[in-house]
Protein: SBF1/SBF2 domain-containing protein
Organism: Knipowitschia caucasica
Amino acid sequence: MDEHGIAAALLPLVTAFCRKLGAGITQFAYSCVQEHSVWTNMQFWEAMFYSDVQSHIRALYLETAEEQHSYDEEEDSRRELSALELASEQSRLWPTLNKELQCERMQKEESTVFSQAIHYANRMSYLLLPLDTSKNRLLRSSGLGDVESVSNSYVTNSIAGSMAESFDTESGFEDAESSDVANSVVRFINRFVDKVCNESGVTNEHLKALHTMIPDIVQMHIETLDAVHRESKRLPPIQKVREAAGPELGPV
């Protein structure tokens, strides 16, 4: 398994495991693994996103198929179908469906992609925003903070760019370092959303809604991190485990 596979396996865990630092303040495990460059790899996030979307859409059509078949069918007709087999079957059935049912299925598929895009915008903000926003070495070294490297939108810069400008002036950030980190992350997530949503046929209305949400997601997470960072500094340093000295050996 390569580092992408390990990161993919870790992602659900580091966003679930946590410790309480104080009243209403929780630190999640993702803040301990943010230094790895895999989190700034766009291809990693795309692969994870499409894998999850495929699983959700597969589940959607499996549920539909189960409703249409009785439980007393032969074993081999109930075997687990792959995503490719399900897609092939749906393509075959598509011309036989009425317009209303076709529209319903298209809406369900788009809603699945849209909800996963929101989910991944949150996930990306978790892994890309450092606990201490003044320490943005990973963002700088990876080029994530380079406007030119991340602003080549698949739609245009008219949506994402205007949202980023609005974020600059209305987010309320006073600290230049925090604002720099926040804008870098917003632009990176915008680029990701543009790509996966256009490849998946998401409507412009939904895409605009996503670009409106992303700065708010990032801002809310930074506000949460500020409290976590303050509390974490009050904790005593973790003691390193010392190796016990072995018994002295006598002369042979």
